[in-house]
């Protein structure tokens, strides 16, 4: 039979009559040039799993990675607000080590998150058609004479324990021990732990250590930020409390000294009422805050005036030590000494 070539006729175009020569359409990329080498395709371009690849196959994520973007955004937003508002206050009032420790923890958390999300978790390649056909022959040969299909299991001994291996109908192979097929990514992952939507990837043999480091360091970072925020609020609350106390003093036209001593109190009677209060909060505030500035009374930049016209007092003659006294004093002293020895 003669080979025939078929081409789809677009709607609205009349069918060609008999004897019409139909020329096949050119290939999508144009006519092939003789000697032109085709670009070799990489394996990630035809990867059968439900993954997305970036940077030429160097980075990979699950196809549904919106929650990973939310996780990254929450960490960046929370840490950014902490560095913008809390760190400057705590660094100036407590120590400069607080923003340094927070920065180290933040970069470590981000590094572990990216390593967990973009790293191959331990995906096992699927069997090729020839390998799958060979395995099917081996399974059929292990069947019995009955019509029951052969069991798709295999037993191996690990540390004197029998472990049963299951057959993966998607990947066409027996799964190694501790391997499971992820229903989200559609891949068999070695030492499969779970599929974590928060990191946008499976957690398995090749990224479990980064996942554990991520959640552990994130716990430390969260606790550190919480402790620093509580400290910030405590220091800020003391300032707010002090400002509230002085607002009460201004509204009552009192001083801190008078309030501590209880000099004026309406509870003790009308005779102990504050005589400086104007009986109105607004008036007291205006009197304290908006009153005129009184001039300084100490004149601290004034010049000292020299003493002028003060008469000098006559100097009193005081005998110096070792000087001779008059004869009357000497005689009195001698008589006193004689009377004491008698």
Automatic annotation (TrEMBL):
Q: Where, subcellularly, is it found?
A: Membrane
Catalytic activity from the UniProt record = L-cysteinyl-[protein] + hexadecanoyl-CoA = S-hexadecanoyl-L-cysteinyl-[protein] + CoA
Bias (Low complexity) ranges: 10-22
Alphabetical GO biological process terms: protein targeting to membrane
Keywords for the protein's UniProt record, in alphabetical order? Acyltransferase, Membrane, Transferase, Transmembrane, Transmembrane helix
Q: Where is the signal peptide?
A: none
Indicate how the chain sits in the lipid bilayer.
Answer: Multi-pass membrane protein
Whether Membrane counts among this entry's keywords is yes
Alphabetical GO CC annotations of the entry are: endoplasmic reticulum; Golgi apparatus; membrane
Q: What is known of its domains?
A: The DHHC domain is required for palmitoyltransferase activity.
State the family it belongs to.
Belongs to the DHHC palmitoyltransferase family.
Under PANTHER family, the record lists:
PALMITOYLTRANSFERASE ZDHHC18, ZINC FINGER DHHC DOMAIN CONTAINING PROTEIN
What is the protein name given in its UniProt record?
Answer: Palmitoyltransferase
């Amino acid at each position: 039979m003669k080979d025939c070539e078929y081409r789809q006729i677009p709607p609205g175009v009349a069918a060609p009559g008999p004897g019409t020569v139909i020329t096949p359409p050119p290939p999508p990329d144009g006519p092939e040039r003789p000697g032109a080498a085709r670009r070799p395709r990489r394996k990630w371009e035809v990867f059968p799993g439900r993954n997305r690849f970036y940077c030429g196959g160097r980075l990979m994520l699950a196809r549904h990675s919106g929650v990973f973007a939310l996780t990254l955004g929450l960490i960046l937003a929370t840490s950014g607000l902490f560095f913008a508002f809390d760190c400057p206050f705590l660094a100036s009032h407590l120590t400069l080590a607080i923003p340094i420790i927070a920065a180290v923890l933040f970069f470590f958390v981000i590094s572990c998150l990216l390593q967990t999300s973009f790293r191959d978790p331990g995906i096992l390649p699927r069997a090729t058609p020839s390998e799958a056909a060979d395995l099917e022959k081996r399974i059929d040969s292990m069947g019995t004479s009955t019509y029951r299909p052969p069991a798709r299991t295999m037993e191996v001994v690990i540390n004197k324990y029998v472990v049963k291996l299951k057959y993966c109908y998607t990947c066409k192979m027996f799964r190694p021990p501790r391997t499971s097929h992820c229903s989200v990514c559609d891949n068999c992952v070695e030492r499969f732990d779970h599929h974590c939507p928060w990191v946008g990837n499976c957690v398995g043999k090749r990224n479990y250590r980064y996942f554990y480091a991520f959640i552990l360091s994130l716990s430390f970072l969260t606790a550190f930020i919480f402790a620093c925020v509580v400290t910030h609020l405590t220091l800020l609350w003391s300032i707010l409390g002090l400002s509230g106390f002085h607002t009460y003093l201004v509204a009552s036209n009192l001083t801190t000294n008078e309030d501590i001593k209880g000099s004026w109190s309406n509870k003790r009677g009308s005779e102990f009422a504050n005589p400086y209060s104007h009986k109105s909060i607004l008036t007291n505030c205006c009197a304290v805050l908006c009153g005129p500035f009184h001039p300084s009374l100490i004149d601290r930049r004034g010049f000292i005036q020299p003493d002028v016209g003060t008469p000098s007092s006559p100097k009193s003659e005081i005998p110096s030590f070792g000087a001779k006294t008059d004869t009357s004093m000497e005689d009195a002293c001698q008589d006193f000494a004689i009377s004491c020895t008698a």
